[in-house]
Amino acid sequence: MYRSQETLRELHRRLTAAIEPIDPQFELIFVEDCGGDHSWIVIEELAKQDQRVRGIQLNRNFGQHAATICGFAHSGGNWIATLDDDLEHLPEYLPELLKTAQQEKHDLVYGVYHERTHPFWRNITSHIARWLFNKAVPSLNYEYTSYRVIRGDVARAVTRFDSPFPFIDGYLSWLTNRYATVKVPHGKRNYGTSNYTFRKLVAYMINVFVTFSDLPLKIATWLGIIAFLVGMIWLVVILGRYLIGGISVSGYASLMASILSFGGIQLLVLGIFGEYLGRINFKSSKKPLFLVGKTINITAE
């Protein structure tokens, strides 16, 4: 939950209506990721009305993936469903996802969309990111979403990964290859706007590439090889022209262009190595992925 005070009551109503016919003994875990609004007050009210509601408030904003893993850590169900708080994920389709998982014996089922209701620019960037992720992490389901039904022990196994830059679907792709997808409609957001800005999406893409793939390092290697070959070819051309008398005055423009281009490649390669070194440093600091502040109806572990 992040700045979701307007949608929480409706989300609770629709979730209970969708899940009660399957099994009335379920739990709803609301992880409030310190959005700064009155979401926690609403969660407290819902928990008083419905003892199946469990509330967790993190000490500060740790991000969607960390908050979801926190929910996994405090779950007890045989099956775990994850969905966003903005009602773009329609709770009414959870029974269909669960039915597919149980009947076809999958560990993981994604709800994927016929058509997304996101803005045009976000749909384009999402398609580009998914294509790139597919190249970097071949085992990753191309159509992954945060609308999922996961076998409980598989979901809780995600909490055993020790990384300060979590990516749940990357973890799940490593834990199991028994997954399926179910086509579902994409709901419309009625309150507020998405918290994923263009800058955050780019940072998210970089995080996935650097944390779950060595593709950037391979790119850096090939850039170095290509730059070396181009430099050697250019040197041979210059020497050849000099020997046949084709060069009378040194060219300032070509010299500066070569310096800037090769210097840029060197800085890019150093930046890639810096990203990996930075992640090693963060991991060695042993910072917790999340810290729980307040809880409601959560049994002490």
From TrEMBL:
Q: Transmembrane stretches, by residue range?
A: 222-244, 256-277
Mention any Pfam family matching this sequence: Glycos_transf_2
State the name under which the record lists this protein: Glycosyltransferase family 2 protein
- Which residue range or ranges hold the Glycosyltransferase 2-like domain? 2-128
Record's CDD domains?
DPM1_like_bac
What is the originating organism of this protein? Thiospirillum jenense
Q: Which GO terms describe its biological process?
A: lipopolysaccharide biosynthetic process
Q: Which UniProt keywords apply?
A: Cell membrane, Glycosyltransferase, Lipopolysaccharide biosynthesis, Membrane, Transferase, Transmembrane, Transmembrane helix
Q: Which GO terms describe its molecular function?
A: undecaprenyl-phosphate 4-deoxy-4-formamido-L-arabinose transferase activity
Q: Which GO terms describe its cellular component?
A: plasma membrane
